[in-house]
Amino acid sequence: MQSRNDLIMTTKLAVVTGGSTGIGLASAVRLAKDGYRVIVTGRNAESLVEAKKTIGTNAITVQADSANLSDLPKLTEAVKNAGGQVDFLFVNAGVALFAPIDQVTPEFFDNQMNINVRGALFTTQVMLPFIKDGGSIAFNASIVKDVGFPGSTVYSATKAAVASLARTLAAELAVRKIRVNSISPGPTATPIYGKMGMPKDNVDQFAAHMQSVLPLKRFGDAAEVGELAVFLASDRSRFITGVDIPIDGGFLLGKMAA
User: What pTM was estimated for this model as a whole?
Assistant: First the structure.
């Protein structure tokens, strides 16, 4: 028999965009473990089916593309059907594509800006009427915004914009006691590394180099980032807003010491 506290927990609702793989999926799994019902979005129908199996009975899946604003009504409809009150929004959907500046095209630029920035902003905008006063929003940024990785001009710019958006919204939404923060993962083992637009040998070399310079000498795990997302969803972080939190195995520390 459930305790009264368990019953309270199961009334909570979280939304995780890009929640069918990687950090989004790990976060959704952890939220469900804490008793949240979790709405996850993703572009790939097969990945969503697998995500629902992984997350469990508390999962609600929505096939939607963050770059396509006409898909947003699918998300709002799912939220309404789930009760219409969101405790936590994790704006996680994003892509990471790398290219040297002389190979950046308007299409390359627009693709990442549309998903990582435009999609993030308008997803948040459409979700705001559903987010409870006193709720929490987290954006998935990246430590790449804080360093000068060659080939990451567009990606870094998108993640800097996301972190700036979080800071501004923290001030704007404080009147509703909604906390807004960003998370900046360092090198983390997720499927995104296979989608960077670089040859496999280059990706492998990049991964080996990153592990060699990390003070902890390993990549992060998506579940570790998920733990931070869940912390920001919870009342344990009730006095934290407007900050960017790196979770990078000491990478920025190593850069400062170099």
Answer: 0.87
